[in-house]
Amino acid sequence: MDQIILWLKYFFLGMVQGATEPIPVSSSGHLIIAQRLMGLKQNGLSFEILTNTASLIAIVFIFREDIMKLITGGWGYLRTRKSEYRDDFMFCLYIVIGTIPAAVAAVLFKDQIEDIFSSVYTVAVALLITGVALWLIRNLRGRKQDGDLKTKDAVLVGLAQAVALIPGISRSGATVISSIAVGMKQETALKFSFMLYIPISLGGLIMGASDIAHDPNRAQLAIPYLIAFITTLIVTYFSMRWFMGIMARGNLKYFSYYCFAAGTLLLIFL
After folding, report:
1. Domain count of the chain?
2. pTM for the predicted model, two decimal places
3. Which of 127, 130, 169, 215 could form a disulfide with 263 if both were Cys (CB 3.0 to 4.6 A apart)?
4. Which domain holds residue 219?
5. pLDDT tens digits for 39-67?
């Protein structure tokens, strides 16, 4: 019976990760809250890496055509210098530029950030900050498309992604909000945000491979981890599809309401 309860807890954690990774409400913050409510404590980064990898697979599958187009066009421009491929090449370049701030911050400060800020209080405050940011950009409708981006746009969005290393600051929220704030159209903001997610998540997987290999609980938690992985993969896919529809309609203000409510409740009760 205890084993079944443990499996159900990890199934729930997978649902939380999958549902919140694509949307601007902070998956890391919600996992901290869920683990506290269920009395679970993760030692090391194995669980976080596995569930993030599951979300990554789902998001790569959804954006597979965009990814192939960027790879083909970027490589085509390098080989031929034809203008028809330039926009794809520049978009790839901006993804690299936008990835650098978070990559540097993760390498230098990730452990310190998590040690200092991994509290429910921090998550609550971060959710309120996210809510304010979502409210401020709720009516913005940018005009920049894929071919209109500039280096400064990539840098600013990249810096926002670095700030999202703080638990409770949503990565997708930070990048989508900053993308819209610098004038991108909803579709371009969504695409740029999740193209940035791919290299940073891959980097986390590579850096954390040793954590998984040397996890002392690996054998004991193999089935719960597998349950969480599969659940995260499936739920991320449907959550991402749902969020794409929300972005197309420009209804981000509803996420600000959620962040205000969740942050306030956490401050009151936890």
Report:
1. 1
2. 0.90
3. 127
4. 2-37+44-269
5. 777 655 678 888 999 999 999 999 999 99
